[in-house]
Write a structure and sequence with these properties.
- About 15% of the residues lie in helices and about 25% in strands.
- A 5-stranded mixed sheet has the order 4-3-2-1-5, with helices on both faces.
- It has one domain.
- The protein has about 120 residues and is α+β, with helices and mostly antiparallel strands.
- It is globular, with a radius of gyration of 17 Å.
- The model has no long low-confidence stretch (mean pLDDT about 90).
- The longest helix is centred in the first third of the chain and has 11 residues.
Length: about 120
C-alpha cells in the first residue's frame, strides 16, 4: 500500500504513541492536526525511535492502516520547522520509506549578479 506519486501526504512531525490504532490516529488527525481524516490524503506517523512508520488513509468506506517496522536503522523524519504537519508528495514519502533523507537534499544555492564579467 505505497501511495501513488501524486497523492498528498501529511507527515506528523512529532513522535506518536504507537499503541494508537485507527481510532486514536484518526482522532489525532482531526483534533490535534486540524485536518480531515476522511479526505483521500495519507497521514504519516513515526514513533519516537524512528524505527516504525504508520500510514492512515480513508478509502471510500473505511480506514486503512499500514505499518512498517525497521529491524535496523532509522527513518529520516522532519523534526524542525514550523507547524505540526509537513506536506509532501507520495513520491517523497516512498523515498522516506526506502531510507532516503529528502530533507537533506539541497539544490545549488541561488546566485544573482548585477553585471557580467
Amino acid at each position: 500500500m505505497r501511495p501513488t506519486q501524486t497523492v498528498r501526504v501529511h507527515l506528523c512531525r512529532e513522535p506518536v504513541d504507537f499503541r494508537k490504532q485507527i481510532n486514536g490516529l484518526s482522532i489525532l488527525v482531526d483534533e490535534e492536526l486540524g485536518l480531515d481524516p476522511f479526505s483521500a490524503h495519507v497521514f504519516a506517523f513515526c514513533n519516537r525511535r524512528r524505527s516504525q512508520v504508520k500510514l492512515l488513509t480513508w478509502e471510500r468506506n473505511g480506514f486503512v492502516l499500514w505499518q512498517k517496522r525497521l529491524e535496523k536503522d532509522r527513518f529520516p523524519w522532519p523534526r524542525e520547522g514550523t507547524g505540526a504537519v509537513l506536506e509532501v508528495a507520495g513520491r517523497e514519502l516512498n523515498w522516506l520509506l526506502d531510507g532516503i533523507d529528502v530533507f537533506r537534499l539541497k539544490p545549488h544555492e541561488s546566485l544573482s549578479f548585477s553585471a557580467v564579467g
